[in-house]
Amino acid sequence: MYLKDIFKLIGGNLYSDVKVNKIKTNSKEISEGDLFIAINSGHDYIIDAINNGASAIISEKDFNYDIPKIIVNSTIESLGKIAKYIRSSYNIPLIAITGSVGKTTTKELIYSILSEKYKVLKSLKNQNNHIGLPLTLFNLDATYDVIVVELGMNHFNEISYLSQICKPDYAIITNIGSAHIGNLGSKKNILKAKLEILDGLNNGYLIVNKNDKYLKKLKYPNIIKVNDKTLKVKNLNIGKNVTFDIDDVHFIFNSYSHLLDNVFIAIKIGLMFDIDLKTISEVIKKYQNIEGRLNIIKNKYTIIDDSYNSSFESLIGGLKQLENKDEFKIIVLGDMLELGKYSNTYHKKINKYLKKIKNKEVLLIGKYTNLIKGKHFDNVKDIISYIKTKDINGSIIYVKGSHAFNLDKIKDTLNVSC
Predict the structure, then answer these.
(1) Considering the entire predicted model, what is its pTM?
(2) Which of these, 1, 91, 104, 197, has the minimum number of CB atoms within 10 Å of its CB?
(3) Using CA atoms, how far apart are residues 61 and 80, in angstroms rounded to an integer?
(4) Run of H or E residues at 79
(5) Does residue 78 belong to any structural domain of this protein?
(6) Which of 6-10, 150-154, 402-406 shows the lowest per-residue confidence on average (mean pLDDT)?
């Protein structure tokens, strides 16, 4: 790609034949020939990008360094325009996933299944917004067979913007929960926001969770509704592991049962891409949740690290898995954020689910967790110090809270201590 091509896309004040190798927003990652886009405070690091070998710069602020440059009104907007152009340059099927709970699990499962047969580009970590999605698409080239991305949102019009950038061929909605209800006001509005994924869908498939009370009612020309019945699942057993059969193939899922709907969607996608059931079952058996999302770490004690984020539905799903555990349980909870006027209601409801868990101690941090019965702390450091005073060998430590509370530090500290 040449800078003159980018100039045509985003405008600016320079026309140049400079060739661009890769497009990056982190000056530390710049290599010889890369284009540096100075987003947010990136202008302060332009000289670092130049010293690392940048061939050109896109910035909102002008500068006097001797290097090809494009000065724009919005570098964020430029990210989107360039990503949209790159995406449109390749006729490669793209799977976009949104939903209130389980987006990352679904993405990782689909990626793992499709990787058995195809070279797959996926969004990394939490690259699911107006910055992260373009960064993923900047890695696209003709060597890839499939793209799998995750689309997140907090407000209306965000998923529409992302969908029109990535132009999905397969749009997946995992469920409609309470996450971001404080911004959107109701679950019906959350459904409306998630359906913005259709804005970029071009004669493609909409795949939804048929067990969700909102999604099962949807009508769309190319809609596929997925659950255990549509896949003809038999012998479903929810015990220490989740097991079931499809046709003559046995499946074992070594994680939590509330993620089953995500598993079923991933199986359906695998079948649509001509992956055989036996291969799919082998991938699912080996699947491990990624860091911060129901990741299980076993040693002298078991840490269930679900610290990446928290919503009502995902928290309830996690707590239900603890009900029948005999081990002593230390349950660490932080606030569920972005619930707005519903914050008190949803936090109070947690008490009902905690009552069903015996042999436990509940440790809490945050404003709204004051509505939950347990021992309250002012900071994560004090929680860690308190846990270290306990004999926790053989125990289960479940950690769940919105990302802002940095509860992952509990996992990091205790995992070293194992």
Answers:
(1) 0.86
(2) 91
(3) 19
(4) helix 75-88
(5) no
(6) 6-10
